[in-house]
Amino acid sequence: MTRLVVLISGRGSNLVAIANAIERRELDAEIVAVISSRPQALGLEEARNRAIPALVVDHRDFDDRQEFDRALAEKINEYRPDWVVLAGFMRILSAEFIARFPACMTNIHPSLLPAYPGLETHKRALADGVSEHGATVHLVSNELDGGPVLGRVRVPLLAGDTEATLADRVLHQEHRLYPRVLQLLVSGRLRWDAECEALRLDGEGCDPVEI
Ligand code: GRF
User: Fold this and answer.
1) How remote is the CA of residue 23 from the centroid of ligand 1, in Å?
2) Is the dihedral of CA 170, 93, 18, 55 positive or negative?
3) Separation between Cα atoms, residue 89 and residue 4, nearest integer Å
4) Sign of dihedral through CA atoms 105, 108, 109, 112?
5) Which one of 88, 117, 156, 208 is CB 3.0 to 4.6 Å from 145, fit for a cystine?
6) SS3 of 161, please?
7) H-helix or E-strand spanning residue 136
8) pLDDT grade, residue 188 (50/70/90)?
9) pTM of the full structure
10) Total Cβ atoms within 10 A of residue 150
């Protein structure tokens, strides 16, 4: 069974969506640990309710980013994951850390990358008056929210949308997107060919998966 370690910092709704997909047998994987950078993250409770080991590596316990990253990597490796799944993990990871998990670390971001990397994506999309917004699952690289895109979901803007209504609709779609992309990865159907810098679905070059 494919082993996932999920990294969170807060609410954990994507973690719940992934755990539910596993329960429904839509995702052939096992969450072997949830690790939070914040002790008060609500997602920890969600993990414990499901009898998933839930741990904290609190960034405030470390003098610098390097030490935190090293402790986090060690903790992750104790669980021998096949994939490290970032789900609302709010720490920027060092190049050294990322190099320890080559092409096996995913993240979900609330925008149609490469548009709006970083924070306040919904606010910026509304301010620009774009017609569509959405969410992206990508591999983690050294560039913030800049690794190869694996999948995305589009969300149209509606008249009267506020940051809250838009965020809500995007989040709802994130919960569909992340398990779907993870299932394609764990089944080996979707693969990033680093040598050719190409995404492949069932062996054929493809665009990011759209749901
Ligand atoms: C999501 O919007 C995700 O795209 C972003 O952080 C948020 C996490 O939400 N990276 P949750 O903790 O999964 O509810």
Assistant:
1) 20
2) negative
3) 15
4) positive
5) 117
6) coil
7) strand 132-139
8) very high
9) 0.97
10) 23
